[in-house]
Design goal:
Number of strands: 25
Shape: elongated
Low-confidence stretches: none
Radius of gyration: 22 Å
Strand content: 35-45%
Structural class: mainly beta
Order of helices and strands: EHHEEEEEEEEEEEEEEEHEEEEEEEEE
Distance between the termini: 52 Å
Number of helices: 3
Length: 345
């Protein structure tokens, strides 16, 4: 595959001066390596961008809770990422692919088949992690370099040029090798089937610029002043109905809330059930009146609660004849800023 090795020193790995001071060259289980600092700041290799290619890293991860892996197509605060969860080996979420948009890693939004896989990999021992990517597809190999652990049918940031690098998520990461190629190996598996379109989904949204959650948290009526102040951007939903709000905005200071609005046309007065989900918190307004307020933030219910988005809720919408305005005020802490909704028959 013609891999080119990257020197294992802080400058070559793209580490800044502060993190570089904490890098510890060492020998572990017979291999010279670097121990990277306990951080969620992931370095990008300087002056190296790939559209198609492959990355390989020899990693040793601890048994404690961490999220270590690789990133590619990194551009500013956007990237594609893959990481392992050593504390979840063998479980459905042992590994995960997720896009990062405006600095938000959207692992609560992109989960289940095509994003997770229940595999085993060594903990406290060396293994090779490889990501091969071309156009909008990728395959990930974890330990076994013959069979992909995960086939990614559609990279969420598309076929773009971007940087590559390590993904550092917590303590204990050791790296003994990092290499890359601009020519990806042939894909092992056939392309995954396209994702089916969920019937009745809200396919298009208008998303506002962010504002402070406190301005709308207690509102039982949608404040007209807040709506009037907003700037709006169109956002198409995924085939599943998921709208990744992080594609439009990042969190800036205390401005962690946006309005996502859609129009529902009704030929007559009618009651229609709406299935929906959100991340992390949301209020739902129909024609200006709040119908629902909920919290699905990480660990908001118990220590195992992930806050993964899904069609977990249903509301009966009393639709008026003609145009009806459906608005979600969605607030985000971390893990994915999203909303999804579908009208049921």
């Amino acid at each position: 595959m013609g891999l080119r090795e990257i020197a294992l020193d802080p400058a070559a790995l793209g580490l800044g001066p502060t993190d570089a001071l904490e890098v510890a060259p060492t020998v572990l289980l017979g291999r010279a390596c670097l121990r990277l600092p306990d951080t969620f700041r992931s370095p990008v290799i300087p002056a190296l961008e790939l559209r198609d290619g492959a990355i390989e890293a020899d990693l040793l991860v601890p048994a404690e809770r961490s999220f270590h892996g690789l990133q590619w197509h990194a551009r500013g605060d956007d990237a594609e990422t893959f990481f392992v969860r050593p504390h979840q080996v063998g479980n459905p979420d042992a590994i995960q692919y997720t896009p990062v948009s405006h600095g938000i890693s959207s692992w609560q939004l992109y989960h289940g088949p095509g994003f997770w896989a229940p595999i085993s990999f060594p903990v406290g021992a060396w293994f090779t992690l490889r990501v091969a990517f071309a156009a909008e597809r990728a395959e990930v190999f974890v330990g076994d370099l013959e069979r992909p652990a995960l086939a990614i049918g559609r990279l969420r940031h598309g076929a773009v040029n971007g940087g590559i690098g390590l993904l550092v998520g917590g303590p204990g990461l050791h790296v003994a090798r990092l290499a890359w190629s601009a020519i990806p190996p042939p894909f092992v598996d056939a392309a995954p089937f396209p994702e089916p379109e969920i019937p009745g989904r809200v396919a298009r949204w208008e998303v506002s610029d962010p504002f402070a959650e406190s301005r709308v948290a207690a509102a039982t009526e949608l404040p007209a002043a807040i709506v009037a102040e907003r700037r709006w951007s169109p956002l198409a939903a995924e085939p599943s109905g998921l709208a990744d709000l992080g594609r439009v905005n990042g969190i800036v200071g205390d401005r962690n809330t946006v309005l996502a609005r859609a129009t529902i046309e009704s030929s007559a007065a009618a009651v229609r059930p709406l299935a929906f989900g959100f991340s992390d918190r949301a209020s739902v307004f129909l024609n200006g009146r709040r119908l629902f307020r909920g919290d699905d933030a990480y660990r908001s219910r118990d220590y195992r609660f992930l806050g993964s988005i899904g069609y977990w809720y249903t509301l009966d919408l009393a639709l008026a004849p003609g145009r009806n305005d459906l608005v979600f005020a969605v607030s985000e802490d971390f893990g994915g800023w999203g909303v999804m909704a579908r009208l049921l028959d």
